[in-house]
Here is the input.
Amino acid sequence: MSAATRRLTTAQALVRFLSAQYTERDGVRRRLITGTWGIFGHGNVAGIGQALVEYADVMPYHQGRNEQAMVHAAVGHARQLNRLSAQAVTTSIGPGATNLVTGAALATVNRLPVLLLPGDYFASRVADPLLQQLEHPVEADVSVNDTLRPVSRYFDRVTRPEALIPSALNAARVLADPAETGAVTLALPQDVQAEAYDWPEEFFAERVWSVRRPAPDPAELTAAVAAVRAARRPLIVAGGGVHHSEAEEALKALVDATGIPVASTQAGKGSLRHDHPADLGGIGHTGTAVSDELARTADLVIGVGTRYSDFTTASGTLFQNPDVRFLNLNITGFDAHKLAARTLVGDARTGLEQLAGALAGHRVEPSYEAEYRAGKERWERVVETAYRADDDTAVPTQTQVLGALDAVVGDEDVVINAAGSLPGDLHKLWRSRSPRQYHLEYGYSCMGYEIPAALGVQQAAPGTPVWALVGDGTYLMNPTEIVTAVQERLPVKLVLIQNHGYASIGGLSESVGAERFGTAYRHRAADGTFTGAPLPVDLAANAASLGMDVLRAKTVRELRNALAEARASDRPTCVYVETDPAPTAPPAEAWWDVPVAEVSAREAAVQARARYDSEAAGRRRHL
Ligand SMILES: Cc1ncc(C[n+]2csc(CCOP(=O)(O)OP(=O)(O)O)c2C)c(N)n1
Ligand SMILES: [Mg+2]
Here is the structure.
């Protein structure tokens, strides 16, 4: 046994340790933590901050503007790299730390890795109450960092230097484990960060975390194959797990051999190229007509790497065939067991390859194939209609903006979005040309993810055109990382759609009898409501003031030119466009459960409740 030790502070030891961690999958080795985002305050400047300058040669540092945004950037980065690499985020204590909570929840909900390193109060308690300390009157060991517990997949507070050893090892294990990953939090009391300790040299040795591809249980595989062979109307629902596992080729091989069609969730879209004959596009509330028709009549739904969110199942109303059964291939038992499914617990790629092998010679009926191919062609006409702009001197609608973007992007471009009316339009209409192109964060649907995520994606894919699509409400929620893009010379492209408020929630509000209350950005009128003139706010000037190149497009033609110019630019560029609110998006093909007031004195709510009751009657529990 070697007795060699190295005397470092806890923060130095952590940075040194992180720089020596690797993942390995399919024989390829990568850094587990490729860099650290940080905003410094008294809770981390002398500890982690000092360690980052000491080890700048092995741990790249990125300066962010807002802690939540730094987490979004890290999450976008990890998603682009199929969860094989992640980034760390260091913050001060108090507000810097609690600003992490939303980002952490987003990471955990989407099963994407990020390492959070908030500072914490003195472990020694010599400085109570410290600036920004919450003094809990009853639980003295509670700090604001405890708000990160429910949104973390692993949490520890490192109250002594040597406690870092098991904590750091567990953090790396969880980050690299495809079944457990999400936000990992190591809360670091600021006195402990700066404290020296004699660390065993082995702690700093290179360590490789195998990102395993477990195969499903053989007995479950046999049962699954029998179920697929017996099905007359099988439908694959492709979720984000297909991408995380890089299982797109395996999915295509299975589909080419069997003719089973594929509908995709927001996270899974692009699992097949849009022009593959078996790609039916999105499924569920924001799905295509062909996907939802097939879902209603499917006798076997094969979920691959999906969480079955309410958008996917149309809040439990989508799968209407009385005999429908589910077969779920998922890396986590938790997701595999949803909807009382037959389970295949394992890696998506391995599972799909094994299914394809065991199904050799099996193919769906030609009539079924002809049926969904015809449905796919009908939907293609819907997309063309939504995209088409006959008068290119007119103000574009939102779907025409997507049509213009569709005409400009190449196969490798990445399009990022998370909230507003865009996710629905994109899920129904976007023609994904490559596995990484469609980057929708719809697990947490967090306004403000888009711009910082574009930075993280661009860092992971230099030279790739990366587009952040945002509404005006989303822009106002979190434009800060534009400054970071400018600082880092990341040529991200921003498409900023001005429609003076929350068009999506306005529409939803109307449909649930809430009369668009509080969803328009307008002056307060004499009667007290926000129904006055639009606000004299210039978001294009705002983006320019933060350092972006800005192109204002007033017409469809100007928009096409601006998008092409932005794509070619090597500087961060914003295309600003005010849209015509005319409804050119196709309506929803399936329901979404948003409960409506059961009693009301207002007619709009009474009528909405009657519609709600009739839709809710279609809910079904799959047991
Ligand atoms: C952080 C956050 N707060 C609130 C919401 C709820 N929400 C969803 S969409 C939306 C409005 C988005 O407005 P905008 O970005 O302008 O897009 P539009 O609806 O106009 O297309 C709101 C408030 C959310 N998703 N995320
Ligand atoms: Mg808006």
Observations:
- The chain is about 35% helix and 20% strand.
